């Protein structure tokens, strides 16, 4: 499984593990002070684009029935990321537009991009300039959080590295809070469990691939001993195929 997809899955697992944990996360990322018992609503992340295709953002969260946040997980620097975040924000605002007698208001969620690998010198804020027909220019700014800056250089992009970095992300974001009451431990346990499930699925897929390869080689009359040596399977397994 590629790193970007794995990071995305683990990140979403972290976000959805505990509403209380989400409050800690939002307070840490956005310097807010929501009470820990604030209601948390996970909004739909699916929207219909202008081409009628389905567009899906990573996470849309509403806190206290009033403040909406868009968190996007990204493995490395990408010039178009801020455009995508703007697009997700626009679709969320459009789907929840506020109608008055003379106006339509689009309220954008507060965005943040969480980067896994920031060796591309990602700034603390990325900016998208919007130029309107009257020549006025407005800036859409998105803050960034770089795990790389807090967890060291990422060298081995595998499940263990992603798991370790996500654990460090939890500790880093929650470092200033003393009333964790086991939330961080619970989240880390969830991450470990999910990583183990992913490892099992990958191992099962690799095993099936080896069996399929062995069957193909046997069909080509390749000697059994050579198949055993090439694929690392036992003689008993190959003979039963």
Summarize the structure in words:
Helix 6 packs antiparallel against helix 7 (224-231). The longest helix has 37 residues, at 183-219. A hairpin with a 4-residue loop joins strand 6 and strand 7 (104-105). Strands 1-4-5-8-10-9 form a six-stranded mixed sheet, with helices on both faces. The chain has a two-stranded antiparallel ribbon with strand order 2-3. The chain has a two-stranded antiparallel ribbon with strand order 6-7. Residues 151-159 and 177-183 have low confidence and may be disordered. 23% of the residues are buried. It has helices at residues 3-16, 19-30, 81-95, 147-151, 159-173, 183-219, 224-231, 235-240, and strands at 40-42, 46-48, 54-56, 59-63, 67-74, 98-99, 104-105, 110-115, 125-131, 137-146. It is built from eight helices and ten strands. It folds into two domains: 3-180, Trna Endonuclease, Chain: A, domain 1, CATH 3.40.1350; 182-241. The chain is 46% helix and 20% strand. With 241 residues, it is of the alpha+beta class. The two termini are 27 Å apart.
> What is the total tally of β strands?
10
Whole-number radius of gyration?
A: 23 Å
Provide the β-strand percentage band.
15-25%
> What overall geometry do the principal axes of the alpha carbons give?
elongated
With helices defined by DSSP (H or I, 4 residues minimum), what is the helix count? 8
Q: Using the 3D structure, state the CATH architecture of the largest domain.
A: 3-Layer(aba) Sandwich
Spatial arrangement of strands, main beta sheet: 1-4-5-8-10-9
What's the level 1 CATH class of the largest domain?
A: Alpha Beta
Helix content: 40-55%
Q: What is the number of independent domains?
A: 2
Mean pLDDT: 74
Terminal-residue CA separation:
27 Å
The H-and-E topology, N to C, reads as HHEEEEEHEEEEEHHHHH
